[in-house]
């Protein structure tokens, strides 16, 4: 076993500091930056080398995340153009004819939200699904809180925690855990399924129970809002057909040509850019060049707003990987036999602590949920990925499965399902109080997390 150095212990201490700061619901950038600096000092880089190490760590982490930042940015660029054209409403509106009862409204709204969130991210999907399907759902008798639950649990819960198309969350977790993103998604699939099924069915049962008791009633002052054909431009109709068709072709291409991970993400991102170009030229003609620039700028502002605070956090946790550490601090800063800080800690933990798979699963889920308390969800993903490497090594279990478990805890809690300050979009679009939505989601989500953790104990 490799002897742990002061650099190892600095990493451990700063991980605990980050957890404490998260529990206090404060931002974790400062302790992460401080952690990199202190590791630079203990790695004999000197004061100036440690200061430069902070920037180098940012660059390495940014390089790892660049593909995800770009694909989310261009997808948001495209979705904002579709919103301005009115095409997003046209794509969803035909499905409103299928909503005839409150039960159908809950499940149909949820599934549409799930699919749209996979391709366009939950934030813009919330506005789209809420604007088009909410009036119909309320009209057939689904209470506003029920509609908010469907949008929130399927979108910011199930879709964001799986993220199989854009692959933002699994890529971050996989990078920190030093596993392939496809391994994480495949091995974590049973856990993703259990969490989604248990949580949403529990929420639905509790909702129906209160509706039967008369505790929840349909909105009596509902005013139907419709989108008339006269308000639409020809480009909107073209876009409403083009976008689903092209992305369907992308999905088929992924299966036929076995595109996975970065290749699949690149296909989705490139498709979004080309759609943006085509529709801008079709709609804006002479001013198309400026229009493309405007939408691209808007998308990248959104992307950097989301990932700007995450890069320093990821930079610290990625230091647990031997290759990242070597790029920033130099390979000679760790013992020759070291496999990286995370692997070394896992081996040390296995030799001195009675770690087992149930304990590892509980710790991974608990820490993942704690990291979600900041209302972001994504800020804790690098941490749970790194810890999955430690725990998985210690119990000789599946690191990818543990990383998926931690990802579920971080995203379901922090992505916006039970933390009030994280679920404001769904609450606002449905005109319900965020605290009311949080209370409604709390029991189903907690039950889902517990059941998923139990399942993980047997498959790690």
UniProtKB/TrEMBL annotation:
One of its GO terms (cellular component) is plasma membrane. Pfam families: DcuC. It is found in: Cell membrane. The chain crosses the membrane at residues 6-24, 36-59, 65-83, 104-121, 127-151, 184-207, 238-258, 264-283, 295-319, 410-430, 442-459. InterPro entries: C4_dicarb_anaerob_car-like (IPR018385). Keywords: Cell membrane, Membrane, Transmembrane, Transmembrane helix. It is a multi-pass membrane protein. This is Uncharacterized protein.
């Amino acid at each position: 076993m490799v002897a742990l150095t002061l650099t190892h212990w600095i990493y451990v201490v700063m991980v605990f500091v980050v957890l404490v700061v998260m529990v206090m619901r404060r931002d974790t950038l400062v302790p992460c930056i401080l952690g990199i600096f202190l590791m630079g000092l203990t790695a004999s880089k000197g004061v100036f080398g440690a200061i430069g190490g902070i920037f180098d760590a940012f660059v390495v982490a940014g390089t790892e995340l660049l593909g995800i930042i770009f694909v989310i940015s261009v997808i948001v660029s495209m979705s904002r153009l579709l919103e301005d054209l009115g095409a997003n409403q046209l794509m969803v509106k035909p499905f409103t004819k299928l909503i005839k009862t409150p039960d159908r409204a809950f499940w149909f709204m949820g599934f549409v939200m799930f699919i749209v969130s996979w391709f366009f991210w939950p934030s813009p999907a919330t506005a789209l699904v809420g604007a088009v399907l909410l009036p119909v759902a309320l009209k057939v008798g689904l209470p506003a809180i029920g509609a908010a639950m469907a949008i929130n649990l399927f979108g910011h819960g199930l879709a964001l925690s799986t993220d199989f198309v854009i692959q933002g969350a699994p890529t971050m977790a996989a990078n920190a855990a030093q596993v392939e993103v496809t391994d994480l998604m495949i091995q974590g699939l049973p856990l993703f399924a259990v969490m989604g099924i248990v949580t949403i069915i529990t929420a639905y049962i509790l909702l129906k129970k209160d509706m039967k008791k008369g505790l929840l009633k349909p909105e009596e002052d509902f005013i139907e809002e419709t989108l008339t054909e006269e308000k639409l431009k020809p480009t909107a109709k073209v876009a409403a057909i083009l976008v689903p068709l092209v992305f369907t072709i992308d999905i088929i291409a992924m299966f036929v040509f076995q595109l996975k991970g970065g290749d699949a993400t690149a296909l989705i991102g490139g498709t979004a850019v080309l759609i943006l170009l085509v529709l801008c030229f079709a709609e804006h003609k002479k001013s198309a060049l400026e229009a493309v620039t405007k939408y691209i700028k808007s998308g990248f502002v959104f992307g950097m707003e989301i990932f700007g605070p995450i890069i320093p956090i990821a930079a610290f946790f990625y230091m647990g990987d031997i290759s990242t550490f070597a790029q920033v601090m130099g390979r000679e800063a760790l013992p020759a036999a070291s496999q990286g800080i995370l692997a070394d800690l896992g081996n040390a933990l296995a030799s001195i602590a009675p770690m087992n798979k149930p304990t590892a699963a509980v710790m991974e889920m608990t820490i993942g949920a704690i990291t979600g308390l900041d209302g972001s969800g994504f800020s804790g993903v690098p941490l749970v990925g790194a810890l999955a490497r430690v725990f998985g090594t210690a119990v000789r279990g599946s690191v990818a499965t543990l990383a998926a478990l931690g990802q579920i805890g971080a995203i379901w809690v922090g992505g916006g399902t039970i933390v009030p300050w994280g679920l404001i979009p769904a609450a606002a679009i449905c005109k319900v109080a965020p605290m009311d939505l949080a209370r409604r989601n709390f029991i189903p989500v907690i039950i889902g997390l517990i059941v998923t953790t139990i399942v993980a104990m047997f498959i790690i």
